[in-house]
Amino acid sequence: MGLFGLLSFVTSTFMLEVMAAGNAWLRLESPVKNASHSDNSIHALSSSETTDEDMPPSQPLLGGGIPYGVHRDLFELTDRIEMGKLASFFFNRVGIVLYYLCIVIYLYGDLAIYAAAMPKALVTVACEDSTSNCTSSSNTSSCSGSTSNLSQTGSCFGRNTVTKDQAYYIFLAVFTLALGPFVFFNVQKTKYLQIVTSITRYVALGMMVVIALKGIVQHGHHASPSTFNVFHLPNLFGNLVYAFMCQHSLPSLITPIRKKKGLTLLLGLDFLTVCSFYALIVFTAITRFQLSEIKDEYTNNFSPAIASVFPSYFIRLFPVFTLSTNFPIIGVTLRNNLKALFHREGHEFPFIIDRIVFPLAAILPPVAVAFATQNLVLLVGITGSYAGVGVQYVVPTMLVWCGRNKLLARIGHYNNHHQSIFRGKVWILVVCVWAVASWIMVTVNNILSRV
Q1: How many whole angstroms separate alpha carbon 33 and alpha carbon 26?
Q2: pLDDT tens-place string over residues 156-214
Q3: Which of 153, 199, 306, 445 is most open to solvent, judged by the fewest CB atoms within 10 Å of its CB?
């Protein structure tokens, strides 16, 4: 976990540097345009499709009406330039296409995970598993259950005729019909929605830690970590990549900060906090529960036999609260990236393609995957280990490498005060070798595990 966190921190500082380099390139290329309104690539907090052509003539220049000629710092980080726009600045045509392919595959995997996780969470609440033996006493408390697909046995909705699998498909269909239509429109002004989602996440994670610690104190520990198993590498890589994935969101998170001095230190503290919190979650999980009891959705371990009624329902429904708010945002973002991938300069998409085909192309494949498999471990492993590695490691590293070279060739210097503390070329080599090695190890492991 520490190694993944360190390398993710390295590429986050790369993103901070290349965001400043993108601002410099923008001022050199077009000092009278505001690029913060001309990006249809991936961003985390909104999915607006505003373009330069949509801006009124009174739109201020560079976010403050200051042309390049009077800027004291060419690399001043004032405009939000998303990862896709940075790719268009510093990559050639092949690089741009590869970037969009990578981000589209990653977003498809994200949506497939969301589409499978929400119905599974609802099934655990709505269905009574007749094969699960949850016990609680003064000395011990445990709840056994499957760690992969949902068992077909068990009653749902108070009817013995409805199995868990059937309930899963019902919830998946309802979820698709309820949230899918949002992808046909734009999702804007999600600030307060994201705040509520974040608070819900913190409360749920805090409850899981406290309840697990309480169980350890009351019933003793059940720590029985297994020995290293090479066949679990894809799942490990996929989960750790997701744990530290933030690079594509940094333009939306960093640019609005007024005082940008000390951003690297701030990022370092963030990563240290995240790493510590995940370590706490993992430690309490393996100490409180037997390894065979830990389910692929850890929230499902907190049944009423483990926690009281309200915390149990809150924790188990936590994925529904958070993922349902993010699904439309990620869906619209995927739709916009699909448009960017297939866009040709000077050609507009017909109305049917633009408003119908692209939204359906964003929704249907992930939902089809969720209908085909309920195995979240598999989905997270594949998405994180392949496309996730590309988004987290390869793209930021290639962006900073190309950005440095292009700006140095154009202006003869590279006085970027946001330059990464890992500025040596060796760090670029280390990250690239790590990414390629990760892909090779995961691929070989997947092949061997099926022989």
Answers
A1: 8
A2: 766 667 888 888 999 999 999 999 999 998 876 677 877 888 888 889 999 999 999 99
A3: 199
Q: In 127-190, which residue ranges form alpha helices assigned H by DSSP?
A: 164-179
Contact 36, 254 (CB under 8 A): no
Q: How far apart are CA 390 and CA 413, in angstroms?
A: 29
Residues ≥6 apart with Cβ < 8 Å to 423: none
Q: Can you say whether residue 163 is alpha, beta or left, with left for phi > 0 and alpha for psi between -120 and 50 degrees?
A: beta
* CB atoms closer than 10 angstroms to residue 342: 13
End-to-end CA distance of the chain: 29
Angle at which helices 83-90 and 395-411 cross, to 10°: 50
Among 94-108, 303-317, 320-334, top mean pLDDT goes to 94-108
Site of tokens 């969101």: 249
CA distances for 369 relative to 105, 110, 116, 208, 215, angstroms: 13, 11, 8, 29, 37
Q: Who's near 128: CB < 8 A, 6+ residues apart?
A: 154, 155, 156
Residue 396: what residue type?
P
CB 190 within 8 A of CB 45: yes
Query: What secondary structure letter does DSSP report for 143?
Result: E
| Burial (Cβ within 10 Å: 0-12, 13-18, ≥19) of residue 260 | middle
- Is the CB of residue 262 less than 8 Å from the CB of residue 104? no
The Cα–Cα gap between 159 and 351 comes to: 46
Number of other residues whose CB lies within 10 A of the CB of residue 318 = 21
pTM, two decimals, is: 0.80
> Taking the alpha carbons of 334, 335, 336, 341 in that order, is the dihedral positive or negative?
positive
Pairing status of strand 155-156 against strand 127-128:
antiparallel
Query: Quick one: DSSP state of residue 299?
Result: G
Locate 133 and state its tokens: 């033996």
Cα dihedral 196, 197, 200, 205, rounded to 10, equals -150
